[in-house]
Specification:
Largest sheet: 8 strands, mixed
Pfam families: Glycos_transf_2, PMT_2
Number of domains: 4
EC number: 2.4.2.43
Structural class: alpha/beta
Shape: elongated
InterPro entries: Glyco_trans_2-like (IPR001173), Glycosyltransferase_2 (IPR050256), Nucleotide-diphossugar_trans (IPR029044), RgtA/B/C-like (IPR038731)
GO biological process, one term: lipopolysaccharide biosynthetic process
Distance between the termini: 116 Å
Radius of gyration: 39 Å
Number of helices: 32
Strand order of the largest sheet: 1-8-6-7-5-2-3-4
Keywords: Cell membrane, Glycosyltransferase, Lipopolysaccharide biosynthesis, Membrane, Transferase, Transmembrane, Transmembrane helix
Length: 878
C-alpha cells in the first residue's frame, strides 16, 4: 500500500479472507448513504446488513436511504424500518433524478465526520469497513475495489471499458472507480460534491479530489452476486455517461485554466505587430517576379488573364474553354492585380503573398485576444518562419487565400461564443468570411468551420453556443455572399452543378484518382512543412495532454478551440482520397498559436518545471546545429542543380559552416531566451535564402519561356502560329499575351503534321521526351527547322514552310524515283557542318548557325560523324 497527494495510488494488497466483525471502534462516527431506486426486493436486507455491520464496529452511526423517485414500495419499507431503528433516515427525491443526484442529496444530509456509501443491491460485505476505517485516519479517501467480481459478463465488460477510459483520459489512479464502498471525510467531501446526476458522479468526485491534492488509498473488498432484482446499468447509460464524461474531461482536466486579465500594454502589442509586419513582409512580398512554375502557376495565372481578355467575369476559362473546377474569387483578385500592376507573374503572385501576409497579422491580433500578446507574437512569428507556409504564400495557388478566409471565419466564430453571451455581430461577420470561402474553393470552407465550432461549444458547455436558428442565419448569410455567382454560372453552364459539386468536391473526397495518398500522408508533411519548428510538434502534443497541475494551470479554454481546429482540418483531409501537401494550410494558424503559447508557458513555469524547459533548451541546441548543417548541404545541392554560381555556392557554404562552428562552440553559453532568438534568426536566414534565392533560381532553370530571352517579344508580335505539342504549358499564352495558342497532344502527331503543313511558319513548344524519330513526323520533313531554346522541360523550335519552286519539286521527285516523294531531312542543329544546296532555291534554305552551302557535285556527301544533313541525289543535276 502506497499513498500520494497526487492520487497516484497503488491498490492495497490484502487477503480476500476477512474475519468477522472486530471490536468496537468507538472513536469513529459514520454516516452510511444508500441510494435506492425501485429496490423493494432488497432494501430491507440492505438496511439490516448495514445496521449489523456498523453497530458492531461503531459507537454511533446513521443510515441514510435516498429514495430516487421509486415507483414501488421502497420508501414505504424504509419508513417501516426507521420506526424500529432510529438510526435509519429516509431522504426522498421528488422524482427520479439519477444516481449522482441521489448521492449528492445523501452526502449533504450526512451529520457525522466520516461518510460512506454503498448500493442497495447488497453486493458488498459491509464488515470489510472494519479494515477501511483505520485507513481513514491516514488518508482523505478510502476507496474499495471489488475482488473476484460476481457481476454478469456484460456488466464486467462495461465496467472494464469505463475504468480503462477513465484512466486514459483522467488518470484518477483508482483501480475500480465505481466500486460502491468508499469512505470520505465530511469536511473535505463538501469541496468535491458531484454535479453530475448520473453514474459519472464517482469519476467527477475523484477528479476533483485529485485537483485538490487529497490523498487516496485503494483497498480490496469482497463482492457478492446481486441479492435480487436487476442492475440499473444498461447499454443506454454509455452514451449518457460519455455525454457527461467528455465535457468534464475537456473543461476540468485538459483545458481547465481561467484566462487571466490582460497585463500587456498597448505599446507592447503594437511593437510586436510592427515587428511581424517587417518580418512577414520581408519574407513574403519581395522578389515575386521569377518565372511561373508549371503546371499550377501557369494555369492560375492564365485564367484571370483570359477573364480580362474576354471581358467575362462569370465563367472562368482556361485555353478559352470553361474551367469549372474552382470558384472565381482567386481569379477575380488576380485580375484586379493585373489591372493595377499589369499582367505579370509578380502581379499574379501578389494575391497569395498578400493572403499569407494578412493571415500572419490576423493570427497575431486574434491570438492576443484569445491567449495573450506574448503567446500570439511567438505563434505568428513561428508561422512566418516556417518554410512550408512561406513557400505556399509565394506560390500561385488558391490555398493561401482559402487559409486566410477560413482563419478569419473561425476566429470570428470563436469571438461570437467565447464571452459567455452570444454576439450576433461577430457571428454574421464570420458567415460573410465563410461565404468568401465558398467563392474561393467551395463548400469545404463550411466543412472546416462547423465541426470544430459545434464540438467546442458542446465540450465547453457554453451557454452562448449557437442554436439551430443561429446556424440557419449563418448558412443563409454565407449563401447570400456566394449564391449570386453560383446561380449565374449555373445558368450559363448547365453542367456546372454536377461537375463542380459532385466531380470536383464530393468525388475527389470519396473516390478521387487525383493525388491518391495513404491516410498517414500528412504526418511527415507536417514535420517537413513546419521546418525548422517541426521538432516542437511532439512536445506540443505532450504539453496539451499531460495532466500535471502546473501545466493544467496554463491551458486556457481557447487552446481547446485551437486544438479542435487543427486536428479536425488534418483529419478531414487525411480521410479524403485525394491529398496534396497544401490542403492542410488552414490548420497553420491554430498550430502556430498553440506552439507560441507552449513556448511562452514553458519559459514562465515555476522552478519545479525547469527540467522541462531544459529539455526544450537541448532541442533548440540540436535543432540549431542541424539547421546549419542542412543549409551547408543545401548549398552543395543547389550548385549541383545549377541553381547557384560556383562562387556564390562556395561563399554561402563557408558562411553556413562558420555558423555551424559558432553554434557548436557557444551552444552551452546561451540562456534559453538567447538560444531561441538565435534559432529564430537562423530560421529567418534559411527561409529567406530558400524562398528568395534557391526557389526562384529553380524556376528560372525549369521555366518554359525565360524572361531574359528575346523570344517573348519576338513571338508576342509575330504572325506565326504558336503550337504547344505534348503538354499545355499555360504560362505560354500568359507570357505572350496571345489568345491564339494551339495545343496538340503527342499521340496525334499525324494531325499535327498536317496542321503545320498548312502554316507559313510556326513556333513549336516541344516536350523534351518526344523521340527524335517522332519529331520528323511532326513536320520537319517539309519545313526548315531552327532550334531557338531548350530547357529541362521544353525545346522551342521555329518551323518555316518551304517555298514551292520547280527546282524544289524536281529534287523532291528525284529523291527516290517516285512521284511526290519528299526530300528527307534530319535535324539541322548545332551538330551540322554543311547544307547541300545545289540548284535548290538558296533563299529558302537559310543557313543554320552560319553553315556553308555545298556545291552540286558534292550532293551525295554524308557526314555520319556530325549527323545526316540535307541529302540531294546526284542525278537530280541542276
Amino acid at each position: 500500500m502506497e499513498s500520494s497527494n497526487n492520487l497516484a495510488i497503488e491498490p492495497m494488497k490484502r487477503s480476500t479472507e476477512v474475519p468477522g466483525a472486530g471490536s468496537n471502534q468507538g472513536n469513529h462516527r459514520l454516516s452510511m448513504v444508500i441510494p435506492a431506486y425501485n429496490e423493494e426486493d432488497t432494501i430491507r436486507q440492505a438496511i439490516s446488513e448495514a445496521a449489523t455491520a456498523l453497530g458492531g464496529m461503531l459507537a454511533e452511526y446513521e443510515i441514510l436511504i435516498v429514495d430516487d423517485g421509486s415507483a414501488d414500495r421502497t420508501a414505504e419499507i424504509v419508513r417501516e424500518e426507521s420506526v424500529t431503528n432510529p438510526c435509519v433516515r429516509l431522504i426522498k427525491q421528488p422524482r427520479n433524478m439519477g444516481y449522482g443526484a441521489a448521492l449528492r442529496a445523501g452526502f449533504q444530509a450526512a451529520r457525522f465526520e466520516l461518510v460512506s456509501f454503498t448500493d442497495a443491491d447488497c453486493q458488498f460485505e459491509l464488515s470489510d469497513l472494519e479494515y477501511m476505517l483505520p485507513l481513514a485516519d491516514q488518508f482523505d479517501i478510502v476507496s474499495g475495489y471489488r475482488i473476484d467480481r460476481k457481476d454478469p459478463a456484460r456488466r464486467r465488460f462495461f465496467s472494464w471499458g469505463y475504468n480503462t477510459l477513465i484512466q486514459l483520459l483522467i488518470g484518477t489512479g483508482i483501480r475500480d472507480i465505481d466500486c460502491a464502498l468508499k469512505i470520505y471525510h465530511r469536511d473535505t467531501l463538501q469541496q468535491f460534491l458531484p454535479e453530475a446526476n448520473n453514474f459519472f458522479a464517482n469519476t467527477e468526485m475523484f477528479c476533483k479530489a485529485r485537483r485538490q491534492d487529497l490523498s487516496v488509498v485503494d483497498v480490496g473488498v469482497r463482492h457478492r452476486p446481486r441479492a435480487a432484482g436487476e442492475s440499473k446499468v444498461s447499454l443506454w447509460d454509455i452514451p449518457e455517461t460519455l455525454k457527461t464524461l467528455l465535457p468534464f474531461w475537456w473543461t476540468q482536466v485538459v483545458f481547465s485554466a481561467e484566462k487571466p486579465a490582460a497585463s500587456e500594454s498597448n505599446r507592447h502589442f503594437w511593437l510586436a505587430f510592427m515587428l511581424l509586419v517587417v518580418v512577414a513582409g520581408t519574407l513574403l512580398l519581395p522578389n515575386l517576379s521569377y518565372p511561373l512554375i508549371e503546371p499550377d502557376e501557369g494555369r492560375y495565372a492564365e485564367i484571370p488573364r483570359e477573364m480580362i481578355a474576354r471581358g467575362d467575369w462569370i465563367v472562368p476559362t482556361l485555353r478559352f474553354k470553361p474551367y469549372l473546377d474552382k470558384p472565381p474569387l482567386f481569379y477575380w483578385l488576380c485580375a484586379v492585380s493585373y489591372k493595377l500592376f499589369g499582367p505579370t507573374d509578380q502581379a499574379a503572385r501578389l494575391v497569395p503573398a498578400a493572403s499569407a501576409f494578412l493571415t500572419v497579422l490576423l493570427t497575431f491580433v486574434f491570438g492576443a485576444r484569445m491567449l495573450n500578446t506574448r503567446s500570439a507574437f511567438l505563434g505568428a512569428l513561428i508561422m512566418c518562419l516556417s518554410l512550408g507556409f512561406v513557400i505556399c504564400g509565394r506560390f500561385l495557388i488558391l490555398d493561401s487565400l482559402l487559409a486566410l478566409v477560413v482563419t478569419l471565419s473561425l476566429f470570428l466564430a470563436y469571438e461570437a461564443v467565447a464571452s459567455g453571451r452570444f454576439r450576433w455581430s461577430w457571428w454574421i461577420a464570420s458567415a460573410v468570411a465563410c461565404g468568401l470561402g465558398f467563392l474561393t474553393k467551395g463548400p469545404v470552407a463550411l466543412l472546416l468551420l462547423a465541426p470544430p465550432v459545434v464540438v467546442y461549444c458542446w465540450l465547453s458547455r457554453l451557454k452562448s453556443r449557437p442554436g439551430f436558428g443561429a446556424w440557419l442565419v449563418y448558412l443563409l448569410t454565407a449563401c447570400a455572399v456566394a449564391a449570386p455567382w453560383y446561380v449565374a454560372v449555373s445558368l450559363r453552364e448547365p453542367g456546372f452543378v454536377h461537375h463542380f459539386f459532385w466531380v470536383h468536391n464530393f468525388g475527389r473526397f470519396l473516390y478521387s484518382v487525383n493525388h491518391p495518398q495513404p491516410f498517414w500522408f500528412y504526418m511527415p508533411v507536417l514535420l517537413l512543412a513546419w521546418m525548422p519548428w517541426g521538432l516542437l510538434l511532439v512536445p506540443l502534443a505532450v504539453y496539451l495532454l499531460k495532466r500535471s497541475k502546473e501545466l493544467r494551470a496554463t491551458r486556457f479554454l481557447g487552446m481547446g478551440f485551437l486544438a479542435l481546429w487543427a486536428v479536425w482540418c488534418v483529419m478531414f483531409f487525411s480521410v479524403s482520397k485525394g491529398k496534396m501537401p497544401t490542403y492542410i494550410l488552414p490548420a497553420w494558424p491554430a498550430i502556430a498559436l498553440a506552439l507560441g503559447h507552449f513556448l511562452a508557458t514553458m519559459g514562465a513555469l515555476s522552478p519545479r518545471w525547469l527540467p522541462e524547459w531544459n529539455f526544450l533548451h537541448s532541442r533548440f541546441q540540436n535543432g540549431l546545429l542541424a539547421l546549419c548543417f542542412v543549409s551547408v548541404v543545401a548549398c552543395s545541392v543547389t550548385y549541383l542543380l545549377r541553381l547557384d554560381e560556383p562562387f556564390e555556392a562556395s561563399y554561402e557554404s563557408i558562411l553556413w559552416i562558420a555558423a555551424l562552428v559558432g553554434a557548436w562552440v557557444l551552444r552551452k553559453r546561451w540562456s534559453p531566451q538567447h538560444l531561441f532568438g538565435v534559432f529564430a534568426l537562423t530560421a529567418f536566414v534559411m527561409v529567406f535564402q530558400t524562398t528568395q534565392d534557391w526557389f526562384p533560381a529553380w524556376g528560372q532553370v525549369h521555366t518554359v519561356l525565360p524572361a531574359s530571352s528575346p523570344l517573348r517579344e519576338q513571338m508576342m508580335h509575330s504572325p506565326a502560329e504558336v503550337i504547344c505539342c505534348g503538354k499545355t504549358w499555360d504560362s505560354v499564352p500568359f507570357y505572350l499575351q496571345r489568345n491564339d495558342i494551339t495545343y496538340m497532344p503527342n499521340h496525334d502527331l499525324d494531325q499535327l503534321a498536317e496542321h503545320i503543313d498548312r502554316q507559313q511558319g510556326a513556333y513549336l513548344f516541344l516536350e523534351n521526351d518526344v523521340e527524335a524519330e517522332k519529331r520528323y513526323r511532326i513536320g520537319f520533313e517539309n519545313s526548315a527547322v531552327q532550334t531557338l531554346w531548350k530547357t529541362p522541360k521544353v525545346t522551342i523550335v521555329y518551323l518555316q514552310q518551304r517555298k514551292a519552286s520547280p527546282a524544289v519539286a524536281a529534287l523532291e521527285t528525284a529523291a527516290d524515283g517516285r512521284q511526290g516523294a519528299p526530300l528527307r531531312t534530319a535535324e539541322a542543329d548545332s551538330r551540322a557542318t554543311a547544307i547541300v544546296a545545289g540548284a535548290v532555291d538558296r533563299e529558302f534554305y537559310q543557313p543554320v548557325g552560319g553553315l556553308p552551302f555545298l556545291p552540286p557535285d558534292q550532293g551525295e556527301a554524308v557526314y555520319p560523324a556530325t549527323g545526316a544533313l540535307w541529302f540531294v541525289p546526284r542525278q537530280a543535276g541542276n
